[in-house]
Design goal:
5 helices, six-stranded antiparallel β-sheet, binds 2-acetamido-2-deoxy-beta-D-glucopyranose, Apoptosis, Tumor Necrosis Factor Receptor Associated Protein 2, Chain A, disordered N terminus
Length: 353
């Protein structure tokens, strides 16, 4: 089972726009004067942000190993000096075989000098049917020895592997200067660790109407929303996050989800959504979910609502999650410092077609 540890995000002003930085980053800033360098290294791992709006990227530092494959490297310096250009290891995930390759000195054919390059390749494809195609979401991680965590940012885009394109990767995964600086915790005692996890996006068989998942996995994720009282923003939509084989996001309407001709005052609305491009055409997921608004004052009075419903053709949740009055009442602790914490616990019970 995959364990994801959600860490709180903080709001920092940067260049006329607000961006969210994860707390671990902030720790780096506080504990290491050379923070800029470290910041750079993590930003390097960050997916390019095209959206100028405030983003609510859940950032993962996880205790658990990346769920699929890990390479621990000892005597890294010897390796750097050796003529070995790359090394790799194969593993199985999602019913396919994969090869994880690391270029400790960068892939020079692709301008990767002074960086470490990482690649994921699908292998043993001769056993696959002609015209095979595998869609997958994958993420690379690096082990931080200081904080004892795997660090990686989630890229939720689905990549297509097929016979013309069997390999995907990141040429400039991390620069060697940042990597070699022991303060950053990546290379400690000449040892380092890299991980990769692969989620194959399933396409369910057409013959099936409903497939029940035997032991559903419960996922948990949370977001911090800032500026919720003073805002004039009508809705907050988080980035998609990958859980299991699907991509999820949360929609939060601090003034209620308003429909022309059917306005309801004094409500807040919260919905869960699944990206239906990660589903096979026309299918839906039967999901049991609980949306929780956290009490950050006494920490004991969380408010939650649950439902079991089919997701895939638009968000589902609660238009009238709570009254705006109750939400804003400082006594309840749902909004502290103009921020609120919303978490979701959910499990996929089956696929409906
Ligand atoms: C994995 O990749 C390496 C380097 O490209 C290659 O030498 C090795 O044969 C590959 N392994 C498999 C099982 O294809
Ligand atoms: C580094 O290695 C030494 C000896 O092998 C060991 O005692 C020490 O605990 C290691 N430090 C870390 C941070 O792993
Ligand atoms: C996919 O979701 C979007 C909204 O999230 C919806 O408009 C669209 O109809 C859905 N597609 C299918 C095939 O259900």
């Amino acid at each position: 089972m995959m364990t994801l540890v959600f860490k709180q995000l903080l709001l920092l002003p940067c260049q006329n726009q607000l961006c969210l930085l994860p707390i671990p980053l902030l720790f780096r800033q506080m504990f290491h004067p050379k923070a800029e360098l470290q910041l750079k290294s993590l930003l390097l791992l960050r997916p390019r942000l095209s959206n100028p709006l405030p983003l609510f990227l859940p950032y993962y530092m996880r205790d658990a190993l990346p769920s699929h494959h890990l390479l621990k490297i000892k005597s890294f310096s010897t390796l750097l000096k050796s003529p070995i250009e790359k090394f790799s290891n194969d593993f199985k995930a999602g019913g396919y075989e994969w090869n994880f390759t690391i270029y400790p000195n960068g892939d020079k054919n692709k301008d990767g000098e002074n960086y470490i390059s990482v690649y994921l390749e699908i292998v043993e494809t001769s056993n696959l049917p002609a015209g095979w195609e595998v869609n997958a979401i994958f993420n690379f991680f690096i082990f931080d020895h200081i904080r004892d965590k795997y660090v990686g940012l989630q890229d939720t885009t689905v990549k297509r592997f097929h016979f013309m394109k069997t390999q995907w990767g990141v040429v400039k995964f991390i620069d060697l200067e940042t990597f070699n600086n022991p303060c950053n915790g990546y290379l400690v005692n000449d040892t380092c660790g890299f991980g990769v996890e692969v989620f194959v996006v399933k396409t369910t068989s057409k013959a099936q109407c409903f497939s029940l998942i035997n032991k559903p996995v419960t996922y948990q994720v949370g977001w911090v929303f800032s500026n919720v009282i003073k805002t004039t923003v009508e809705r907050y939509i988080t980035e998609y996050s990958v859980f299991g084989d699907y991509k999820w996001r949360l929609l939060f309407f601090p003034k209620g989800y308003q429909v022309e001709g059917n306005k309801i005052n004094n409500i807040i609305s919260i919905f869960l959504d699944v990206d239906n491009s990660t589903l096979s055409a026309g299918s839906k997921l039967l999901v049991h979910f609980t949306i929780r608004l956290e009490d950050k004052k006494k920490n004991s009075n969380h408010f939650e609502r649950s439902d079991t419903t089919a997701l895939g053709s638009g968000a589902r949740g609660f238009r009238n999650f709570m009254s705006e009055t109750k939400f804003k009442d400082p006594e309840n602790g749902f909004v502290v410092d103009d921020k609120c914490h919303i978490s979701v616990e959910f499990e996929v019970l089956g696929v409906v077609k």
